[in-house]
Specification:
Blueprint lengths: L3 H14 L7 H13 L1 H11 L3 H12 L34 H11 L12 H12 L2 H5 L6 H4 L9 E4 L2 E3 L9 H10 L28 H9 L8 E4 L2 H11 L13 E4 L3 H12 L1
Antiparallel strand pairs: 1-2, 3-4
Length: 282
């Protein structure tokens, strides 16, 4: 899989020179209008994943034609788990699935929540959407720009995968490419985009937490008893541990006052303790 840093400049050049084909302008405008109409649904998924609502919408357009009865993974019916690639999703829950729950599962499966809410530049959007669909065009048919991105723009004419691993060089895509929709959203002043050189640098990594000792029951409890809530677990607290817990829990209210022995007794939610457990062993 190509690295984002290796092809970001290519996305920038393609975006800068891309224009929607005149004869397809009405079709692109209609897709953008449909996407805008579903913004409340996309906002729900965005809150849970940090993926911008319009990126969720572009995937929805391409994978399911804006159908709210279909999985965002691949357009299969919500009445069952997916039967096409990726097969058997969502793993949790039982059908029929809600569109929102399935959409969140699809984005988490692809790791889109890891991009970061402030890192969605034009180049990053193009990269993540091409990765979502697959790099088959880039890897095996480099002369064809992915129609998932560029269909109905001047960057794409023909050549399409008509099935898994089945490429037809003469078949044009009839879908509205994601970047064509994005061009329309920008033209309509619906979204404001940033190029990669305007993305703020990521924050420095948090310091590693080092603990000399911790009761083995505290470290193993989340794994051994995942269904039982953690009510009290006494963990040695160093300044770094205290700092980390403050950051995880959003403030000092979750911690006891500093006093006495270097231990703490606090009601820590199980997911926070599991996260701390992972940090301690990292």
């Amino acid at each position: 899989m190509p690295k984002f840093s290796d092809i970001a400049a290519e996305y920038e050049a393609l975006w800068d020179t891309a224009v929607v084909r005149t004869e397809k302008a009405a079709e692109v405008a209609k897709a953008a209008q449909s996407l805008r109409g579903l913004k409340p649904k996309y906002d729900e998924v965005s809150v849970a994943t940090t993926v911008p609502w319009y990126v969720v919408g572009m995937i929805h357009s391409l994978e399911a034609g804006f159908d709210l009865n279909s999985h965002l993974h691949n357009g299969d019916s919500l009445a069952a788990v997916t039967h096409q690639v990726p097969k058997g999703h969502p793993r949790n829950g039982s059908p029929p699935f809600t569109w929102t729950a399935s959409a969140i599962d699809a984005l988490l499966l692809k790791g889109l929540q890891k991009v970061g809410k402030d890192a969605w530049s034009v180049e990053r959007i193009a990269y993540e959407l091409e990765r979502y669909n697959g790099f088959g065009y880039r890897d095996h048919h480099p002369s064809v720009k992915s129609p998932y991105l560029w269909s109905l723009t001047n960057q794409y004419t023909k050549g399409k995968y008509v099935g898994d691993h089945q490429f037809d060089p003469n078949e044009p895509s009839k879908q509205v490419g994601a970047m064509a929709i994005l061009k329309q959203l920008v033209a309509d002043n619906v979204v404001s985009l940033t190029m990669q050189d305007g993305v703020p640098p990521p924050p420095p990594p948090l310091p590693r937490v080092i603990m000399e000792r911790a009761p083995i029951s505290c470290l193993l409890w989340p794994m051994l008893r995942p269904a039982r809530p953690i009510r009290l677990c006494r963990v040695p607290v160093t300044p770094l541990v205290r700092s980390r817990l403050l950051q995880m829990n959003g403030g000092p209210t979750m911690l006891p006052p500093k006093r006495g022995l270097p231990t703490m007794g606090a009601s820590i939610p199980r997911d926070r303790l599991q996260l701390l457990h992972g940090l301690l062993l990292s």
